[in-house]
């Protein structure tokens, strides 16, 4: 696990927390899940608790496992170990999104505000990259910049359907076009 944490430039604090989660998880049987997936899930919990912006996909690639396997292990770990799902602020992920053209500062400010309101409304438990991509798309629409959901989803590394569903959820809670 230390090699994995160093590979991703994670702090010693995150490594310590992930180690304790992994030790506790070792006593629990996760079925046919491989140890690298358990380690990746433990690191993901520790990163979310410490507000470090890392994605499941990045951890899965670093361990050589599939993102679905790590995601299932993460969910099982939360349920069986009674860990509350740590909320993340999508703003940390927002500036990681790079589209094929620059966007205005006004767009980024609008998307940060959308993320803040969505998180306050209880949508913070979603995939933070999906939340950031959806907020960016909605901000582009409100500012008048031409961006498609497909472009934003590709930049975020998430599915277009995920962005669409998250946009719907955000629109329910606030007055966004």
**What is the radius of gyration?**
17 Å
What is the average of the pLDDT values? 83
Order of helices and strands: HHHHHHHHHH
Q: Major beta sheet, specifics?
A: none
Helix vs. strand class = mainly alpha
Task: Please tell me about this protein's structure.
It is built from 10 helices and no strands. It is elongated. 67% of the residues lie in helices and 0% in strands. The protein has 2 domains: 2-80, Cyclin-like (Cyclin A, domain 1, Orthogonal Bundle), CATH 1.10.472.10; 91-173, Cyclin A, domain 1 (Orthogonal Bundle), CATH 1.10.472.10. With 177 residues, the chain is mostly helical. It has helices at 2-7, 12-26, 35-49, 56-63, 67-80, 91-94, 105-123, 128-143, 149-156, 160-173. The model has no long low-confidence stretch (mean pLDDT 83).
Summarize the structure.
By secondary structure, this protein is mostly helical. It contains ten helices and no strands.
